[in-house]
């Protein structure tokens, strides 16, 4: 498994930040258009759901059809509004939201139920169990992966969750958890730092 935290260029997060992030991970218009073009050109074999809802934590307004409908058609405006409310818990914090990616090696896969457990346990291990977060699986690359967007503010303490050494903590988590996830190879956990300036532009 690969754990990534795309770099966020924006200095101070606001309500628009989470809207952009969630729109990106659920499958925005650009991603849908690219998939349809590839399908019609024969570059992809099927026109399946580009994204699939995996899990949400401390968010009440998830559409009823989230488990069965493609992520890109879901109306998440109420869920986004809930996540935006987290800003009021501690408005002094600059980095109000965090984007994380967990990827498998090529030819590995997990069921959506296994992804749900993986995301939930990882986020708890990293200290985000009292935060609002949402995750989607992306199906438009060779490597199966999920994107997670989380508030960094603990809803109970109103403090920012420490993300010090999160790469190393994720490494420890996956090292211990790999043995209970069936279907994964014994390849070592890898870090893949990336820069993603295209996701946050405001």
UniProtKB/TrEMBL annotation:
Top-level taxon of the source organism: Bacteria
- Residues in MobA/VirD2-like nuclease domain copies: 74-172
Name of protein? Relaxase/mobilization nuclease-like protein
């Amino acid at each position: 498994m690969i754990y990534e935290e795309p770099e966020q260029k924006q200095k101070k997060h606001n309500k628009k930040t989470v809207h952009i992030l969630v729109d990106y991970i659920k499958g925005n218009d650009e991603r849908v258009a690219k998939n349809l073009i590839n399908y019609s050109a024969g570059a992809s074999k099927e026109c399946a759901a580009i994204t699939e809802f995996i899990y949400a934590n401390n968010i009440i307004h998830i559409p009823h059809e989230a488990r069965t409908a493609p992520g890109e058609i879901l109306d998440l405006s109420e869920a986004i509004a809930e996540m935006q409310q987290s800003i009021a818990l501690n408005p002094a914090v600059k980095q109000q939201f965090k984007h994380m990616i967990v990827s498998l090696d090529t030819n590995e896969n997990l069921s959506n139920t296994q992804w749900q457990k993986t995301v939930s346990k990882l986020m708890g291990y990293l200290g985000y169990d009292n935060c609002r977060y949402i995750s989607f699986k992306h199906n438009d690359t060779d490597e199966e992966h999920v994107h997670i967007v989380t508030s960094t503010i603990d809803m109970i303490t109103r403090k920012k969750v420490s993300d010090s050494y999160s790469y190393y903590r994720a490494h420890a988590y996956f090292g211990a958890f790999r043995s209970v996830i069936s279907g994964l190879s014994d390849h070592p956990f890898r870090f893949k730092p990336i820069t993603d300036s295209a996701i946050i532009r405001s």
